[in-house]
C-alpha cells in the first residue's frame, strides 16, 4: 500500500463524519449498497462529500492537476476550435464542472482577443466551493466580461451552442461488476465494524445486467460500468437543439476498456498528488475516478439522434486546432516565457504525459463544417 500523508485532526474528523453517514446508509439499505452509491456519497454528499466542501482540490496544494491548470495554451487552443464552430451555432457556451474557473477565463480571453466573444458563457457547477473559486477568479481575470458569465443550478431545458465538459465524466459514479464463469456479480460495499468491506451479490439491476452481458469479459475480471455517464449524455443529447457537445477526459473505447489484460478495471483515487486504488481511504478527502468508456458516450449520443463529429487523442486535437501556432506567437528570444510554454505544451501533448491517455470526442447536430481539431488522427475505429 502506498504511504499516504496523514490528514490534519480537522480533516480526520470531517472524514469520520462522512464515514458514519455512509455506514448509516448501508444499515438503512439492509447491510449493503452498490459501489455507485458509495462513490456518490463520498464525492457529493451535501456538506461532506469531496466536491461539496472547501478543501483545495486543484493545483500543487490540492490532489490533482488538470490541463487548464497546467497551461493557458489548453484553453486558448480550445477557443480556436470554438471560433470555427460558433458561426454554425448560437453564440452560447456552457461549461460543465468548471474547476477553478481557469478554463473559462482562458477561453474567454482568447475569444475576446480575436473579436469572437459569445453572448453568454454559462457554468454548471455542483460544488459550492468550486463555484465560489470560479467567481473570484473570473472577477479577477476578466472583470469586464463578468456580465456574460452565468452560473446555473441545473441543466437548461434546451441547448443551442457548444457545451464543454473537461474531466467531468470520470468523476461520475460507476457500478463495479465482477464476471465469473457461473454468474455476473455486482461488487458493493458493506460494513465491518468501523470499516468498509467489499461484498459481491448477484447483479439484479436489469439495465446494468444487460450492459454487462454485452461485454466479452474473461473469468475473474472486475471493471466499471457507468449508468451515470450514459444518463448525463442522454440528458444533454435530448436537450441539444443545435450545436456540439465536447467531452475531454481520460479513457478508451470499449474494446480497450474491457481488454483481458485489464482485469482489475480502472478505478483510481487521488489524494495529495498520490494515486492509489483504495476508495475506502478517508472518504470525503480524496477524489475517486474511473476512466471513461468512450464507446458508451458515442453510442448513447447517437441513440439519442446526434452525430459523431470526431474522436481523437488530446495531443492530436490540440495540434490540429493550432496549439503550436499559439506557442509561436511567443518570441523565442524571450527565453524564460518560451521555454516555460514549451514545457507546458509537452505535458499537454506528450504520450508520456496527457497526450495519448486523454481523448476528445465531439457529438452534436446541425454543425456542417469539418472540425479542425479532428483533421488528422481519427480514432473513431477504436470506439
Give the SSE map.
Layout: H1 9-28, E1 33-34, H2 35-44, H3 67-70, H4 72-85, E2 92-96, H5 102-113, E3 120-124, H6 128-141, E4 149-152, E5 159-166, E6 175-179, E7 184-192, E8 195-202, H7 206-213, E9 222-225, H8 227-239, E10 240-252, H9 254-257, E11 268-271, E12 274-276, E13 287-289, E14 292-293, H10 294-303, E15 307-313, H11 314-321, H12 323-328, H13 335-349, E16 358-365
Parallel strand pairs: 2-3, 2-5, 3-4, 5-10, 10-14
Antiparallel strand pairs: 1-7, 6-7, 6-9, 7-8, 10-16, 11-12, 11-13, 15-16
Helix pairs in contact: 4-5, 8-10
Summed up:
The protein has 383 residues and is of the alpha/beta class. It has 13 helices and 16 strands. It has helices spanning 9-28, 35-44, 67-70, 72-85, 102-113, 128-141, 206-213, 227-239, 254-257, 294-303, 314-321, 323-328, 335-349; strands at residues 33-34, 92-96, 120-124, 149-152, 159-166, 175-179, 184-192, 195-202, 222-225, 240-252, 268-271, 274-276, 287-289, 292-293, 307-313, 358-365.
Give a written overview of the molecule.
It holds the Pfam family Methyltransf_28. InterPro entries: NDUFAF7, NDUFAF7_sf, SAM-dependent_MTases_sf. This protein has about 375 residues and is α/β, with parallel strands linked by helices. The chain has a single domain, classed as Rossmann fold. The protein contains 13 helices and 16 strands. Strands 2, 3, 4, 5, 10, 14, 15 and 16 form an 8-stranded mixed beta sheet that branches. Strands 1, 6, 7, 8 and 9 form a 5-stranded antiparallel beta sheet that branches. Strand 2, helix 5 and strand 3 form a beta-alpha-beta unit. Helix 4 packs across helix 5 and helix 8 packs parallel to helix 10. The longest helix is centred in the first third of the chain and has 20 residues. The mean pLDDT is about 95.
